[in-house]
Design a protein that fits this description.
homotetramer; 28% helix; nine-stranded mixed sheet; 264 residues; alpha/beta
């Protein structure tokens, strides 16, 4: 797996509400789901030879935890939220969207299908069918050469999970990597790649708070692969520009410095 | 070209501001750009055997012209706006987006790349490069079997047009139909299909107010084809639902009435 | 559903070997699978208001049944084959591919994933996982606005079918319409659209010879929808050309007759 | 740019016929086009921190230069051919296709749009429009986050090149990275990604033998990026399999060794 010398800077956003109030979630994730996600990323990426610098950002401190400064220093943001999507301020959601447009990677996890930044990036309702009865979930790879599927069993067996089923109201993914089935017979496009602006977005549906999904090594491998895939190119962070272009602006003489050309 | 007995119900949204204040635009479109667009659609669809019912909706009356009732009776909405995108109320933009999710078609024309509903449906900045110096635009078909390209010359020659150039910050289109080049050498993905929810969106870039583009029969043919492509399926207008599904909800006995199944 | 006055000319290719030697298949399809497919198309398209002219072409007469003349008069070819793919002469397979490039539609059914023309159009092995133990198959729609899913229940329940499972080695479909799950938990991209040249290809996996799948009205509706989707544009049947183009070939004066321009 | 410790094993296939008979080509590429391509890859990848092992394979020795053994040890094969496509034996073309299915990357360069392995992988005619009059070619990036566009000017200016124009008869690329325009106004999808089986294919159109395109550093950067993108995952080289799968084959007990699961 190709890596870089520069540590991968990951910010793990966690809502951290279920963990405070639901005994069952505390039992599964005594240090919070964000901690399990962060540890899984650090260890798995380490095994793949990729160093990391990981921050945690929680909803309670979201205004200071997800500032422009933090996001500018974030290569990949992971997002888990469920019961408190509405408590995320609109300005923070817009800020995250802007940084994705600039090049930051985003991993939207499970119920983050309804997170404000994800919905804004999709432009659809992100509605779906669901049932929380502990269905077995099987995660099948449908793309033979995608780096996010590298080293991942076929299928991943998740003994118990919330069912998420089609119709899932997202734009057709740029690349579909995983499709899941459930005990009840439903299917779900569970691993979906999207490019938005200069940033990459990966949606991965396993990971309900009621089940120890983020402790599973195969799931950790998917998240690590996705973080490597979603990291931005090594270039200045800016969005695609609106520009008034003079005729022949790109030809010798009128041509701006090489470097500025490289940001589109 | 396949048609239906039911008239195609099209609402033509026009900003109608340049027409009021710029003599050059008045000269090209004395009855407003919306009238040229509407007449072109009516005549071209008529020639193809498709009846139409066309309404005009102008910015000045937008609150009453684009109500939920009107949109519910609209199969395809065309949208041209440029200088007054910000005067479109957010609630109207959200309403249009909602109706696209429900199944309404949307044709976003030229500077509507920056219209509120289009940007919300894309989830990107929709930035681009531009130059208003009367470049010749050549519109090339890059999809050999797409219905929107049926009967369209290869290339369409537009003698003078505003240049729109890449990088155009949109999601990769679900289907790319046209790519344009300009005198200055720039290229642009000028005909792009997107599916969002149960609705279809076609972006078509030719059509600056300074040039008589909507009087060109080839352009009218593209818009007519796009309207036929974008019309919704004949079914109840609702978005994809968020649903809690009991195990085996779809099996005999538990099965809802056939008709309700058909809306996903 | 949009239709045309011109009858849709469909050729139903059937291998017709299992029907001759397997009593179980004879019991399900006493007049051959091709007859069930043809009758289903005729009746369902008729109900949708689309007239048809349907021919049958069987493997035993394939050289005369799938001549260039027949294919030139075919809007959409359906293909069912299984045990005798190798008995299809290479020239016939190449001929079918050529006609798809020219604009003919192709519906590849079930085990036609291994048919010579389909494999040549895909460029992949078309390998997959399978099990013939009568799994229940559920066919889920994953595209909210696709015409092939119009009027189709969500899910289609097929009481018993051969299991086809991922990894299915096809190129990523241009549009993914259906995904199936099976009793055993496997998933399959069961409804896939591809554009090749000027022709459209739809692969639909339900339909093993051991089960009465083609007698199911929902399956017949999918095939009818697919035939409407796959029919070619009303233009001269030619492939995309290799052409040496003089500078300015498309400008006034040098410009060929309008009609010839329309074929790309 | 992410790299690996393992050298990237590249085989550069060159037809090497024009170089022997056309003085103009000899003048531009005195050591053959393959040598310029190989040196460009070696130097550029070296600058990016990626070591390489590069072999040359020429048409005159193709039977021994592109054996199964060589291809099995090749991560990425580059292919330039033009006047002698037909001299490539069918078995060698089939062998290359098979190795792409197994995971080998393929960079198809310029007139390799007509090379036997490329056509077999596409399933289309690969026809296009062309003119050899030294048009200026501008190569524009249309994908804001694709690794093949990293560090590449927007546009790349190629002072003189053969024109390749649409309609280009390929399947819609899985990812479209570059679109070119030419002095004569034509456009071309010049940088196209395809996934086939477990392998990745990148088609890049600049590079006619009459022009010094492969000496341009921006072009070398594109090829280096593409080689990094196209290299296979670090796993056993096999195609997607056809497999008869027993019910529950993937569950504990029946489960094969972890490693074998990883190859889909």
């Amino acid at each position: 797996m190709p890596v870089t010398d520069r540590p991968l800077r990951i910010t793990v956003y966690g809502e951290n509400r279920h963990e405070k109030q639901d005994a069952s979630v505390q039992a599964l994730y005594p240090e919070g789901m964000h901690t399990a996600i962060a540890h899984g990323l650090e260890a798995t990426l380490g095994n793949l030879g990729q160093g990391t610098e990981i921050r945690i950002a929680l909803l309670d401190d979201i205004e200071t935890a997800l500032t422009d400064e933090v996001l500018a220093e974030t290569d990949v943001l992971t997002w888990w939220g469920h019961m408190a999507h509405d408590d995320v301020p609109d300005e923070v959601a817009d800020r995250v969207v802007r940084h994705v447009h600039d090049g930051m990677g985003l991993l939207a996890l499970h119920s983050a299908h309804y997170a404000k930044p994800f919905k804004k990036l999709m432009g659809t309702t992100c509605n779906l069918r669901w049932r929380n009865e502990g269905d077995e979930e099987l995660v099948w790879t449908v793309n033979g050469s995608h780096p996010i599927a590298e080293g991942v069993p076929h299928p991943i067996v998740i003994p118990a999970q919330e069912m998420y089923g089609e119709m899932f109201d997202i734009p057709a993914p740029d690349e579909l990597v995983f499709v899941s089935s459930f005990t009840g017979g439903e299917v779900f496009r569970s691993g979906c790649c999207f490019r938005r602006g200069k940033g990459k977005v990966f949606y991965f549906s396993p990971g309900d708070q009621e089940y120890p999904v983020y402790h599973q090594s195969e799931i950790q491998r998917v998240l690590a692969n996705a973080a490597l895939w979603a990291r931005p190119a090594e270039r200045e962070r800016t969005p695609v520009q609106i520009t008034n272009a003079q005729r022949d602006w790109f030809r010798a003489g009128d041509r701006p410095a090489e470097e500025s050309l490289r940001v589109i």
